[in-house]
Amino acid sequence: MTGEFPSWFLEQFPKLWLLLLQNNSFTMFQLPRLLLNHTLQILDVSTNSFDQRLPDNIGNVLPNLQHLNLSHNGFQGKLPSSFGEMRMIDFLDISHNNLSGTLPKEFLIGCSSLVILKLSYNRFRGQIFPKRTSFEKLYVLVANNNLFTDIEDGLRHSKYLSVLDMSNNNLQGVIPSWLGEFRFLHLSVSNNLLEGIPPSNLFNITNLKILDLSRNKFSGNLPSHFNGENMSLLYLHDNEFTGTIPSTLIKDVLVLDLRNNKLSGTIPCFVKNPIILSLLLRGNALTGHIPTDLCGLRSIRILDIANNRLNGSIPSCLNNISFGRSLGYEFSYDLGSFSFGDESLGVHSRLLILPREFSRSQPDDLAFIVEFSSKSRYDSYTGGGSFDYMFGLDLSSNELSGDIPIELGDLQRIRALNLSHNFLSGLIPKSFSNLTDIESLDLSFNVLHGPIPQDLTKLDYVVVFNVSYNNLSGSIPSQGKFLTLDETNFLGNPLLCGSAINTSCDDNKSTNGGFLELDSQNGDEETTVDMEIFYWSLAATYGVTWMTFIVFLCFDSPWRRAWFRLVDAFISFFKCV
């Protein structure tokens, strides 16, 4: 349907209590000026094409609304103060619009029955919430992607608050310590300007499932005492945390993201967490060997410990990690049945129009996001979606050495493997031809030698194959996906040849290859000649040295007399002994 909002419905049906007009193409939203106190309780006009200001009289015309959804439109300007007349409203979604300004005090004081409030993706600014706010029954507050600058004491009145998302705002200063007094299920303040040391009680909220403090300026050590028994998702990446990683931080989490901090020390023991799905430690200053405890993470899908200072060899037991061989995981949380005293705040029969993620029925899979580098780019993988498809291992930009374990070829379901920018030597394992699902394989910037195994042409899904800047030799495979690879993937290997780098292998034999063939034919002879020259040179050097020494002794000089005195002193010493 198109055109204006059908306000005549309200005039002709004064007892109408439910009006659902979502997913249409209405362009004008106006309400009757003379109509007051309509009985409408549920109004959903989400996902239309409204692009003007909200009617100033909306709260006067519809004071009995309990459920209002204006989301996914283009409403502009400030929120009308008449919203404060909606004293019975318990669900309000005005997200994904172009609303701006501060929240009117009439709204903050008058809408005291709110349980679920969604303000995200607008341009609201100022405080969230000032002292006089009366949202005592608020259970869910989603206010991400706005311009809010402060978390004020008014939020303390919402003692039942369980979901708080203030990510992607302009929040400054420190996190108030009283936030740790809530019984949160989900707390996100990511991508703000917050700083200082987060209150330790945030890490000890009993029922907390999701804690996201990422992309701020938090500093200090991570808390040594961590009691988040029910924690599932912990995002602390892109901050300035220092010190070591406490082993208590990793118990029972599904996703642990500590990327891009200043953490040091060794990787702690993760063997007691058999359910972790994603472990991201990239971009810190971790040292030591890769612990074999990681081989016990049988459920993990993404393991990223790149860009640290890890050394030693790659544990061959990493082939024990499932990387897709063990499928299936479950993550969800139940908002439960919330009631206060004798008054139930549930939405009863209106559950059918509540957003799925905030209905009181437990969702099958609550979406979460994991970021991982694959195919030479960073992507975000969503739980219940693309995350179910991705299996990856990134050990790049460390100080790892030794051969690449042939056992890594057992990771048949892995889609991204990055071992670049290390000191790995030896041959490219032929077992890599078993990585049948691989899409991105990066071995660049190592000291690998020998040929590229021809069996790798069996990799039907590979899009990125980079072996640049090694010491590889021989012909580049010219079948399968190798026909689509350009020369940048093979740079820095002067002994390679093939159509991918526009170098004929016949020409290579006549230059570099010819020398190699000559060396092979005459190797024993050249070795014999070299050793003979070495022995004769050594004998001549010793002979000349002794002759020079004897000649000096034949002349009467201070140096000669000093030498004989030294010899006499040694003889006297041994006689005394």
UniProtKB/TrEMBL annotation:
<comment type="similarity">
    <text>Belongs to the RLP family.</text>
</comment>
<keyword id="KW-0325">Glycoprotein</keyword>
<dbReference type="InterPro" id="IPR051502">
    <property type="entry name" value="RLP_Defense_Trigger"/>
</dbReference>
<keyword id="KW-1133">Transmembrane helix</keyword>
<feature type="transmembrane region" description="Helical">
    <location>
        <begin position="533"/>
        <end position="555"/>
    </location>
</feature>
<keyword id="KW-0433">Leucine-rich repeat</keyword>
<dbReference type="Pfam" id="PF13855">
    <property type="entry name" value="LRR_8"/>
</dbReference>
<protein>
    <recommendedName>
        <fullName>Leucine-rich repeat-containing N-terminal plant-type domain-containing protein</fullName>
    </recommendedName>
</protein>
<keyword id="KW-1003">Cell membrane</keyword>
<dbReference type="InterPro" id="IPR003591">
    <property type="entry name" value="Leu-rich_rpt_typical-subtyp"/>
</dbReference>
<dbReference type="InterPro" id="IPR032675">
    <property type="entry name" value="LRR_dom_sf"/>
</dbReference>
<dbReference type="GO" id="GO:0005886">
    <property type="term" value="C:plasma membrane"/>
</dbReference>
<dbReference type="InterPro" id="IPR001611">
    <property type="entry name" value="Leu-rich_rpt"/>
</dbReference>
<keyword id="KW-0675">Receptor</keyword>
<dbReference type="Pfam" id="PF00560">
    <property type="entry name" value="LRR_1"/>
</dbReference>
<keyword id="KW-0472">Membrane</keyword>
<keyword id="KW-0812">Transmembrane</keyword>
<keyword id="KW-0677">Repeat</keyword>
